[in-house]
Amino acid sequence: SFYLRRNNMAQLTNEIAIEPSAAVVVPLPWWQRVDEALVWIGDRLNPILVKETRQALKSRQFVITFTLVLALAWIWSIFGVAMIGPSIYFAARGLDMFMGYYTILAVPLLVVVPFGAFRSLASEREDGTYELLSITTLKPRQIIDGKLGSAVLQMLVYMSAVAPCLAFTYMLRGIDAPTILYVICCFFLASLGASVIGLLVATLTHEKHWQIVLSVLFLFGLAFVLWIGLMIGFAGLAQQAPPFQDRYFWIITAIMFSVYAGYFALCYCAASAQLTFASDNRASVLRMVMVAQQALFIGWFGWGLFYEEPDPEMMLFYFVFAALHWAAMGLFINGELGELSLRVKRQLPQSFLGRVFLTWFNPGPATGYMFVVANLLTLLVVGGGFLFYAASTGKVSRMSHSLTFAFGVLAFSYVILYLGIGRLLIALLRRVTHVTLVLAVLLQVLLVMAASGIPLSIHLMTPDIRNDYSLIEISNPFYSLEEVIESNFYSFEIVALLTVIPLAAGVMFLVNLPAIVFAVNQVRIAKPKRVAEEDAELAALRAPPPGPSSPFDD
């Protein structure tokens, strides 16, 4: 009996034995699979994004701000409903409630989040922790992406807190869902743009005292943006809802979005360039973005001129915006270092066409000055063609066409003149001391202020000509351009301005020409043997494995 039971037990064991290869895999619970997927995604996210998000969401500032947003939204919900009273059942009062939530949401999105992005990068540069990031394999753009990603997550948290309240306003009638969605998108883009500007401002200087000054100025700028946003919201939404059925509304929206995208890309690339090492090429990408911006600018104006009714004020805006844009770009371009590093010299164009068209994208204030002059001349020629077309239609008088073109010539001449003087002044100062980018911009701004303020003071102290334009103001671009705008004919003062200022701009260009020629004569140098070997090794590592590159290859 014992042996019989043992044999039966052995037989039963053999029947239920399972081979290792046929083992049954027990499926993991769904929450464990989700957790493993989130861990896998987190390991591949930007490490700066992870670090900044953890620090931001655990900070006291975020907890206090988020609590205040929730508390104020709750208080306004109770107070607003009580203020509306019994009419809430039949009156369309959703817009009144929406404006309260609009104000509550505007403060964290337009002030708190951008200033937090500014301080997150400025504090690392002040405390010296950025040097630890710079020796890692992280690229400057990854650092900027991580900072911006953290700002985006904070925006989404604040929006999610107020989103139920915005849905509540829709149920009260008086505001439609597309308007709410449009306002939220505008809020998001405005906050994202202010955040990237904050990151750019944080990279302008390393000195702590300058960082304090920039912090105060940036905070005042955010307060001004908040005030503008509130004024636009209260004045625009209170009068009329966005006309979504009007095609001009979407045209204006597309123009504004293209302008926003261009300047966002410019600020993003500038912030990334400021974080890279000093010997790298920081200018070429920025100047390519500027050319793309100018192409969009010309394209929109050409579309408006050929498909809409020509307007002299439109062309005045064309010249004013172009002059202000390139004056601002020239201020920063003149602050670039004048010497090319060996790394940049190894990347210079060497073909004839490359040297003709790509030399002006090389770093340096000399090539940058020529780059600005070339773009201004291009805009002047295109603007002259636009004005000729507008005058040929007969809808604009030839005198108005001529004075508008004279305004453009004078405005661009002032830009070329003062940028040339600023470049020479910075070059002379760099022979005796170190001139930073912030100091270079400040010097050029003070130059224009002195050239405008001193003649204005003399003019106002002269009783005989106090109320009339005088050639004493010839160095004042603002007063002189205003005189051209308000004139209906070519007076002696306007003829003198159109003679002296373009001539002075041409002379200043000739004075800067030797530096431009020297920059053009820079040629590519050969790579050192060690650098060539390292580049070959990196190219070999990045090369695809041998074999067919597609299923159609043999």
Instruction: Output mean pLDDT.
Output: 80
Q: What's the gyration radius in Å?
A: 31 Å
Query: How many beta strands in the DSSP annotation?
Result: 0
Shape: globular
Report the β-strand fraction as a percent range. under 5%
Describe the sheet with the most strands: none
What is the N-to-C succession of helices and strands? HHHHHHHHHHHHHHHHHHHH
In percent, how helical is the residue content? over 70%
- Pairing-aware structural class of the strands and helices? mainly alpha
> If helices are DSSP runs of H or I spanning 4 or more residues, what is the number of helices?
20
Cα end-to-end separation? 72 Å
Spans of at least 5 consecutive residues whose pLDDT stays below 50 are 1-7, 15-24, 550-554
